């Protein structure tokens, strides 16, 4: 199933622009808040699988918010594709490099984002949403704790990230709008192989990043095992799983987003984000 968030109301999405309002179709058993379903994921998934209601809502992409709007915890992985580890100059660590994107940075799949500086960079990422509390979960049980997958951008302000003697990941990646996600949350059963999806982002016709999620150093079961060995993962938590090579900061010359750019971010089977940028420097 695919779950969308239209104006703060949870939808079972049908096609590209229609959905079933969960609160209405369930007679109030589940509220409109997407987190109500995530907090009771097993019960909700069983209800949704049996739901025979007809679509009763239409929406435009701009009306969609982040499919998981208020995660208690957002984990983000810094170096998780070999080629990106090479371009970033970090050797692979024994634990994944982990930081957070503060949840106020989340926005929807068709967002306008204001660039705070001229050095904002793109990072396409597969995002995992947790459905069942995961505490010291092993690899074999990890997928059973996943509600679904969605497309994400880990937008990054490189000057403040890199100016100190130690990288400053979390704040530099948490300006308003720096976490576009969506267009919907897709359950793993919808995908032929949820561990091997084409992942890319582009500006117009120019492909900036292109890889496959099977090239992760720490795959989804490994991330859940290693993170949940430290922190319990809660329903509705998100994991941004890292970006492949092709970021602007690693280019010669370096390249960053400018006002007027429209970034398209796509993952096979999950859909696309369209993120439009304003200022401080406009495209020539
Ligand atoms: Zn990232």
Could you explain the architecture of this structure?
This protein is α+β, with helices and mostly antiparallel strands. It has two domains: about 1-60, no CATH class; about 75-280, Fumarylacetoacetase-like, C-terminal domain (Fumarylacetoacetate hydrolase, domain 2), CATH 3.90.850. It is built from eight helices and 18 strands. The chain has helices at about 20-25, 35-40, 40-50, 80-90, 140, 160, 170, 220-230, and strands spanning about 1-5, 10-15, 20, 55-60, 75, 100, 105, 110-115, 120, 125-130, 145-155, 155, 180-185, 200-205, 205-210, 240, 260-265, 270-280. Strands 1, 2, 3, 4, 5, 6, 7, 10, 11, 13 and 16 form an eleven-stranded mixed beta sheet that branches. The chain has a five-stranded mixed beta sheet with strand order 8-18-17-14-15, with no helix packed on it. A two-stranded antiparallel ribbon has the order 9-12. The protein binds zinc ion (ZN).
């Amino acid at each position: 199933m695919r779950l969308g968030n239209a104006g703060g109301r949870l939808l079972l999405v049908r096609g590209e622009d229609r959905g079933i309002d969960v609160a209405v179709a369930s007679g109030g058993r589940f509220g409109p808040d997407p987190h109500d379903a995530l907090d009771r994921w097993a019960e909700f998934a069983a209800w949704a699988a049996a739901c025979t209601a007809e679509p009763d809502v239409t929406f435009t992409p701009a009306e969609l918010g982040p499919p998981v709007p208020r995660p208690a915890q957002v984990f983000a992985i810094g170096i998780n594709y070999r080629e990106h580890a090479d371009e970033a100059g970090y050797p692979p660590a024994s634990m994944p490099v982990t930081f957070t994107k503060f949840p106020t940075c989340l926005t929807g799949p068709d967002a306008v984002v204001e660039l705070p500086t001229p050095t904002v960079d793109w990072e396409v990422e597969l995002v995992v949403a947790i459905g069942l509390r995961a505490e010291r979960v092993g690899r074999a049980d990890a997928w059973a704790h996943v509600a679904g997958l969605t497309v994400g951008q880990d937008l990054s302000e490189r000057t403040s990230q890199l100016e100190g003697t130690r990288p400053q990941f979390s704040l530099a990646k948490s300006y308003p709008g720096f976490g576009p996600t969506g267009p919907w949350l897709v359950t793993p059963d919808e995908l032929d192989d949820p561990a091997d999806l084409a992942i890319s982002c582009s500006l117009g016709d120019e492909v900036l990043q292109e890889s496959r999620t099977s090239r992760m150093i720490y795959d989804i079961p490994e991330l859940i095992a290693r993170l949940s060995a430290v922190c319990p993962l809660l329903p509705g938590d998100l994991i941004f799983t890292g970006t492949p090579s092709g970021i602007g900061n690693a280019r010669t010359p370096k390249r960053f987003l400018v006002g007027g750019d429209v970034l398209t971010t796509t993952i096979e089977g999950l859909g696309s984000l369209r993120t439009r940028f304003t200022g401080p420097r406009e495209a020539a």
